[in-house]
Inverse folding.
């Protein structure tokens, strides 16, 4: 009897293996181990100090000196909130994503901070900037605060249907119970609610019409927030992707998981246009694009708590 049970157990396990059940495949993103970086050395204008700043980009190991607009190197799918701006002839940088040593390699460190612009020794502009790492790219140089969101090409072509997102992380969350809003053109204001580090993954089925407008159906959704600091790294954190219309789920958060219309992408003519989500796709539909963002703050542009920090490493998809 014992041998018969063992035989049936073996046959069941073999059948499951043949059918692909119980098997898991982890597929890392290109450069998703963050062990190689492009380091850029950009000289800011003399009127604001003339310092040379180091900007980190995810890609093949190389160093670039000079104030040339950056484009992703080595087929890297990753963009960052590190950016060179040139406004009214003045070159200024923002650095909120850093390369940090981890074990024998590196990880990405995302930091929310206040960026200050000084002219002739006076502080003219204070802007809150969150650290953001995302799939896509940025068109440089930025020529104004309103142009910032439009310069970001949000997401990459993608047709897979992964089960989950996996990565290593660590977070340090500021103690403040509320956030601040600081745009540089008005005084500091208070935004109710604690600042969170956030991960957003969206699978979209996009459509471009004859005029170049882009709409999308939401195929898959994953939003994870962190409101407490961690003392150690959390390795191999795995989060399920929800497919189809998720609004009936008890843990659905409309503010963070609802349909979006303020993200930008470049259409087939190279023009930056909003990607307007028009609804949730049926659960079985195949996406055309993947959006993935890690951010040290969750409230949108110019909103957050200085000091929020989000470390990320070894990012990939689970099938």
């Amino acid at each position: 009897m014992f041998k018969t049970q063992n035989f049936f157990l073996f046959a069941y396990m073999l059948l499951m293996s043949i059918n692909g059940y119980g098997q898991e495949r982890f597929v890392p993103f290109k450069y998703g181990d963050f062990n190689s970086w492009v380091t850029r050395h950009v000289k800011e204008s003399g009127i604001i100090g003339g310092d040379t700043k180091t900007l980190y980009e995810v890609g093949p190991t190389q160093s670039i000196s000079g104030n040339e607009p950056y484009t992703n190197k080595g087929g890297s799918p990753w963009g960052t909130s590190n950016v060179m701006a040139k406004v009214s002839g003045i070159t200024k940088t923002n650095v909120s994503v850093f390369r940090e040593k981890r074990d024998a390699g590196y990880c990405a460190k995302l930091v929310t901070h206040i960026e200050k612009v000084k002219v002739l020794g006076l502080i003219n502009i204070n802007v809150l900037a969150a650290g953001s790492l995302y799939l896509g790219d940025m068109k440089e140089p930025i020529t104004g605060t309103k142009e910032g969101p439009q310069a970001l090409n949000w997401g990459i072509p993608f047709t897979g249907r992964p089960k989950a997102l996996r990565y290593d992380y660590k977070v340090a969350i500021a103690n403040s119970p509320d956030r601040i809003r600081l745009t540089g053109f008005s005084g500091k204001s208070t935004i109710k609610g604690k600042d969170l580090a956030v991960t957003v993954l969206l699978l979209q089925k996009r459509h471009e019409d004859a005029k170049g407008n882009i709409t999308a159906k939401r195929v898959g959704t994953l939003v994870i927030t962190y409101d407490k600091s961690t003392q150690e790294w959390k390795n191999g954190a795995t989060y399920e992707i929800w497919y189809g219309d998720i609004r009936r789920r008890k843990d659905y958060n409309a503010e963070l998981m609802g349909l979006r219309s303020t993200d930008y992408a470049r259409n087939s003519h190279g023009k930056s246009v909003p990607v307007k989500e028009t609804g949730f796709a049926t659960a079985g539909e195949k996406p055309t694009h993947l959006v993935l963002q890690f951010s040290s703050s969750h409230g949108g542009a110019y909103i957050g708590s200085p000091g929020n920090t989000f470390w990320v490493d070894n990012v990939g998809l689970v099938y």
Observations:
- Residues 12-20 have pLDDT under 50 and may be disordered.
